[in-house]
Specification:
single chain; alpha+beta; Ubiquitin-like (UB roll); three-stranded antiparallel β-sheet; 39 strands; globular
Length: 786
């Protein structure tokens, strides 16, 4: 085979990257690779190997005895051998009918050690580097490892960390690698400045972005670590914030950080242009697709003429219309909003155009970055799979669902061309975050004294997306235990199946102790994106133990009902719950509604027979964007009706601090007194209750918003009345407070979005009450993630 200038051109590119030397003669030499005129060899001889088997070398060649080969085969063979990372040098030559492969083996890594590291443990650094014990030493990989360690330190706010390497030869042609680390000082963010903002203050915009200014406790949450990618993501958060509040012309002019090397602190500056605020003008639907009823689609529009422009409302409308036309047999239909700005009137008219989109199919879905969460947990949040029609709306919905799981600190979905023009590859990049929580709570009441609760929650158990929670709590007279488990995709469907085990003992009653234990089996499914249905069966066994002898020895207990005479009461109940949620944020909602309606039927051959109905709704609204002042209104109510005979006292409704702050659990409503009306024996419960609450919260004045403190002021009101205990059960006793008497309280509280998790404390003062009510003026609670 004769060599010519075309061959030299063909191999020159490879020479630049593989250290290949090209010379011109009657033969061509490529880093010791000599190709004579023979095109076929009879044998392959491997030289220079001592640890690597000759078969391993031959296995990485594209040349085999008896088969013709070309210079491209030699080039590819050299590349493959270098790619193994086992060799520092490779030479291939031909001698007669023999192909000679001469290799120089890389040293074997005996040990990898890290010196000087305190902020990042050895285990974490070992995962960051590619050099491994008993692996082949490679100088290029070593340099990449140095950069990987520096990147790891930059991610924890130590951008000035330095890394050097030290190689120590040991016997057996091995080498120890030592990474010498100088961690340096922590790089902080001294300030975040906004330029050009008029409608919203710096504090409100600082709440929107994830980059935070350094504070006293920043070393715990690491939110003050500067990262350019995070700053780009913050730009998108600002755009969404403004777009959803009418500022359709908003744009980020620039965002950058300057490092003051003398103080090792960043100053972040974000310059924005807000533009004018718009409201919706005319809104309509048009279609170029035959068979689509645009009048029916108009009912799905969530953007209303005269309302403040919101990009989210436009997106929700697109999703609703896309779902409807897809179910009508148009999976490739594309919904495009066309906006027409009226700059004079500051309105945006929107036409939703339904058009026949490009026919494309999902070739595959690639999941990247999940180190803990399993692939199938991510895939099941998509309403499309491999082979389905590609739909951008469904992709956006899947992204929102993945974000709502709170399993990931970041979610990004992109597309790449597939193997065919009508094929699309979905790339899902996620980053796992902590999903465990450790919580404590408590308070003080004038009846139970100090109360405390402790619970541990894991929302992504073993990376399977399962929910598990264990809780213990109590006071001087009570003990509570519970265990809950939920599988969100039961049998592969979007059905949340789970159970709750619980037990509670209460000796606060006069003369006896009550013990409740049982199990609750649940099954839930979404009806729409905002509406959710849960069905359940609950079995509870209540046992009563007298503190002194038998029932007849304590006549004051007669009103605690015939169940005491039996010693126990078994309750089996079926229930369903409808939940509605449009909150913009479940942790700190600023806009939206959260509502719940439940009905429970007890009977089924057990001791209790009743129909219980409860409802609660909360509305959140931003009172002042600039001050970040949030208003909340909550209303609720409930009623229980005996379906056979009378109710047991324990089947009645009880309310307390969870409904009206300032009162203890079961702290208000009808009470059982002795015949003289002088001794308060126990809460009797009621058949009907109503409650209402108003609350306003705002950042704590005089304290930086970055600290996460909010001040709350509230007013609660509630009433619990009615009673269905049999008159015969009141022998020698008196029922007090069965009338519709309202109670009210006012109070203040502080919530802290601490690095350990949300912390809440409050003080409530009852201003309307009855003399026999049980008060609980102070309460607190906290939780932390792990």
């Amino acid at each position: 085979m004769k060599a010519g200038s075309n061959l030299l051109n063909a191999v020159s590119a490879v020479a630049l990257t593989a250290g290949i030397v090209v010379t011109g003669a009657s033969a061509v030499t490529l880093a010791g690779v000599t190709v004579a005129e023979a095109a076929v060899i009879n044998r392959i001889e491997v030289r220079g190997n001592s640890r690597v088997e000759a078969s391993t070398v031959r296995g990485n060649l594209t040349i085999s005895p008896g088969a013709s080969f070309s210079n491209n085969d030699i080039d590819e063979s050299v590349k493959r051998l270098f790619a193994t990372g086992l060799f520092s040098d490779v030479q291939i030559s031909v001698s007669g009918s023999t192909l000679i492969v001469t290799v120089s083996e890389n040293q074997i890594i005996n040990q990898v050690v890290f010196n000087g590291n305190k902020k990042i443990k050895d285990a974490a650094l070992s995962r960051a580097v590619q050099s491994r014990q008993l692996g082949a030493y490679n100088d290029l990989i070593l340099q990449a490892d140095v950069q990987a360690i520096r990147d790891a330190y930059a991610a924890v706010g130590r951008s000035d960390a330095t890394v050097t390497t030290r190689l120590v030869p040991v016997d057996g042609d091995r080498v120890n690698i030592a990474f010498e680390i100088n961690e340096g000082d922590r790089t902080k963010i001294s300030s975040i400045n906004f330029v050009g903002n008029q409608a919203f203050g710096d504090g409100r915009l600082a709440d929107v972005i994830t980059t935070k200014k350094s504070g006293l406790l920043s070393f715990l949450n690491r939110k003050d670590v500067y990262d350019e990618d995070k700053l780009r993501a913050d730009e998108e958060l600002l755009r969404r914030f403004y777009y959803n509040r009418g500022y359709a012309d908003f744009r980020v002019i620039s965002s950058f950080a300057e490092l003051d090397e003398s103080s090792n602190e960043y100053v972040v500056t974000i310059t924005v242009e807000e533009g004018e605020r718009y409201v919706f003008g005319d809104v309509s639907v048009e279609s170029t697709v035959q068979g689509i009823d645009t009048d029916a689609l108009k009912k799905l529009i969530e953007t209303r003429s005269g309302a403040v422009y919101s990009a989210k409302d436009v997106e929700d409308t697109i999703m609703s219309i896309s779902d409807r036309v897809a179910t009508q047999g148009y999976p490739f239909a594309e919904i495009t909003p066309r906006g027409d700005r009226d700059y004079g009137n500051r309105t945006i008219s929107v036409v939703y155009l339904v058009d026949e989109g490009t026919r494309a199919y999902v070739e595959r879905i690639e999941i990247r970055g999940n180190t803990r969460t399993r692939d199938y947990v991510i895939r099941r949040e998509f309403d499309l799979s491999e082979g389905d029609a590609f739909n951008q709306v469904l992709v956006r919905r899947a992204k929102k669902r993945l974000e709502d799981l709170k399993f990931f600190s970041s979610v990004n979905i992109s597309t790449q061309p597939g193997s065919q023009p009508d094929r699309v590859v979905l790339i899902v990049d996620v980053k796992d975050q902590s999903t465990g929580e450790f919580g404590i709570g408590g308070g003080y009441s004038n009846t139970d004294g100090f109360t405390a609760t402790l619970d541990v929650t894991e929302r992504n158990f073993l990376g399977r997306g399962q929910f598990i929670r264990g809780s213990v709590g109590g006071s001087a007279d009570t003990r509570e235990y519970s265990l809950s488990f939920t599988e969100p995709y039961f049998l592969g469907y979007r059905l949340a199946a789970g159970f709750d085990l619980f037990k509670k003992t209460d000796s606060s009653y006069s003369g006896f102790e009550q013990s409740n234990e049982g199990i609750n089996l649940r099954l839930g499914a979404p009806i729409t994106e905002e509406l959710y249905l849960t069905t359940a069966f609950k079995f509870t066994q209540t046992e009563y133990a007298l503190n002194s002898g038998t029932v007849t020895s304590n006549p004051e207990l007669a009103a605690i009902n015939r169940a005491i005479a039996n010693g126990s009461q078994d309750v089996g109940a079926l229930s369903y719950t409808l939940s509605y949620n449009t909150l913009d944020d479940n942790v700190l909602p600023r806009e939206g509604i959260s509502a719940r309606f439940t009905q429970e039927y007890a009977g089924l051959g057990f001791d209790a027979n009743y129909l219980k109905t409860t409802a609660k709704a909360s509305y959140f609204h931003m009172l002042s964007e600039s001050a970040d002042m949030i208003g909340q209104v909550t209303v609720g109510g409930g009623h229980v009706l005996a379906t056979s005979g009378n109710l047991s006292v324990f089947d009645h409704l009880f309310i307390g601090e969870e409904t009206i702050r300032g009162f203890d659990t079961r702290g208000l409503g009808p009470r059982v007194f002795n015949a003289a009306g002088t001794t308060n024996i126990a809460a009797a419960g009621g058949t009907t209750y109503f409650n209402g609450s108003v609350e306003v919260s705002a950042p704590m004045p005089m304290i930086s918003r970055d600290f996460g403190l909010r001040l709350n002021a509230f007013a609660d009101a509630a009433t619990l009345y009615g009673n269905n205990i049999s008159a015969a059960d009141f022998a020698g006793q008196t029922l007090v407070g069965a009338d519709m008497n309202w109670r009210a309280s006012v109070g203040v509280g502080i919530t802290w979005a601490s690095p350990f998790g949300p912390l809440r404390v409050y003080y409530a003062e009852p201003v309307v009450k009855e003399s026999y009510d049980d008060e609980k003026k102070f309460g607190f609670g906290a939780s932390t993630r792990f």
